Amino acid sequence: EPRSPWCCLAWSLVIGTMNSLVFLLNLLLMFVIFTVVLLPTIVVVYFGFQCHSQVLHSSARYCKSILDDNSSSALIILGFVIMSPLLVVAMAIYCSLARRLRLLMCFQPYSLAVYKGGRWCRPGEGAPCCARGCNTQLKAWV
C-alpha cells in the first residue's frame, strides 16, 4: 500500500540518512585500511622527496650524511614501484572485511519509503545493521 506524500518524504529522509551513514562508514574503513597498508610507500616517497636537492632539500642531518640526490631518487622510484602491489593488498583487505561484515548489504532501497510494510532487509541475509525482524537462520547447504 502506498504511503502518504509527507510520510513518504519523511521515510525518504530517514533512508537517505541511513544510506549516507553506511557510505561514510565504508569510506572511513577504506581510508584507514589504505593508510595503514600504504604507510611504507608514503614514508619512502616522503623521505625521497624531502632529501632531494631539486625538490625540498631539507637541512636535516640524515639528508646531509646519508641521502644524496641519487639515493633520494632511488627512494622515490622504490616507493612508486612498491605502491602497485600494496594497492592490490589494501583493496583485497577492504573487500574481504566489507564482505565479512556485510557492509554493502546495509544500503536500503528507496522503495521502503514509498510502500508500507516493506522489510528493512531481505530474508536470509542477516546483515548486522538490519538483522532485526528478518530470518537470520543459516542454511546447512550453501
From TrEMBL:
Its main location: membrane. InterPro entries: TMEM88. One of its GO terms (cellular component) is plasma membrane. Keywords: Membrane, Transmembrane, Transmembrane helix. It is a multi-pass membrane protein. It comes from the Eukaryota. The keyword Transmembrane applies. One of its GO terms (molecular function) is PDZ domain binding. The keyword Nucleotide-binding does not apply. The chain crosses the membrane at residues 21-49, 74-95. It is found in: Membrane. Belongs to the TMEM88 family. This is TMM88 protein. The lineage of its organism: Eukaryota, Metazoa, Chordata, Craniata, Vertebrata. The gene is Tmem88.
